[in-house]
Amino acid sequence: MTQGTVYGVGLGPGSQDLMSVRADRLIRGATHVAYFRKKGRCGHARTIVEGMIPPGAIELPMEYPVTTEIPFDDPRYNELLAAFYERSVAQLIEMAEAGCDVVVLCEGDPFFYGSFMHLYTRLLNRVPVSVVPGITGMSAAWTATDQPITWGDDILTVLMATLPEEALAERIAQTDALVVMKIGRNLAKLRRALVHAGREGEAWLIEYAAMSQQRVLPLSEVGESVPYFSIVLIHGHGRRP
């Protein structure tokens, strides 16, 4: 029997009309669809494709055993997630070995800080795997500001707000243009790092980029908390004609 293929399909930033033609085709023709979600939730990826999955398609929700309940540097965090990814991979392999193609829904781009990467490295050389790229959330975020993010020789740095404050401040001070993700509970720390780098006044916050709830405002006007789907930007001002 010919093995099926596991497709990691990038959905883009959250709007169906920003998906690629290939992603749209694979989802609308899928017989088996897998996606990540937090326990008790529908899952953002699944919400994005509402109305696109064919009737009768088999769905495989992959529920994270932990998200923010314990710190990511706690040894239990990696242990729980590693076991979760192994279980998920076993299910996907079982489907592929039965000759079924499986579409794994991935927010943004599958190879850019996505959970699918942890499946991909475990699936390689075991079953066929194919990745469909998607527009990243950060691309949608800087487009929402109506300003280019980089010019000429500008250096763009992408940071996770989970980094130590000192490391954040150092990187922010060194770069021309900036993207900061995974803000959540790290907003206060990120603000202090921006102040230390002398760049707080340049920062913008984009919530729900390319989604119906999209909001763009200077970081200085933001309250004490932000939604999960938030990105902080600093635009570059480099060489231009």
UniProtKB/TrEMBL annotation:
Under InterPro entries, the record lists: 4pyrrol_Mease (IPR000878), 4pyrrol_Methylase_sf (IPR035996), 4pyrrole_Mease_sub1 (IPR014777), 4pyrrole_Mease_sub2 (IPR014776), CobI/CbiL (IPR012382), CobI/CbiL/CobIJ_dom (IPR006364), Uropor_MeTrfase_CS (IPR003043)
The residue ranges of the Tetrapyrrole methylase domain are 5-218
Which Gene Ontology MF annotations are present?
precorrin-2 C20-methyltransferase activity
Q: Which domain of life is it from?
A: Bacteria
Which UniProt keywords are listed? Cobalamin biosynthesis, Methyltransferase, S-adenosyl-L-methionine, Transferase
Q: Provide an example Pfam family for this protein.
A: TP_methylase
Query: In which pathway does this enzyme or protein participate?
Result: Cofactor biosynthesis; adenosylcobalamin biosynthesis
Its BP terms in the Gene Ontology are: cobalamin biosynthetic process; methylation
The similarity comment for this entry is: Belongs to the precorrin methyltransferase family.
Recorded hits in NCBIfam families, A to Z, give:
cobI_cbiL
> What is the protein's name according to its record?
Precorrin-2/cobalt-factor-2 C20-methyltransferase
Native organism is Vreelandella arcis
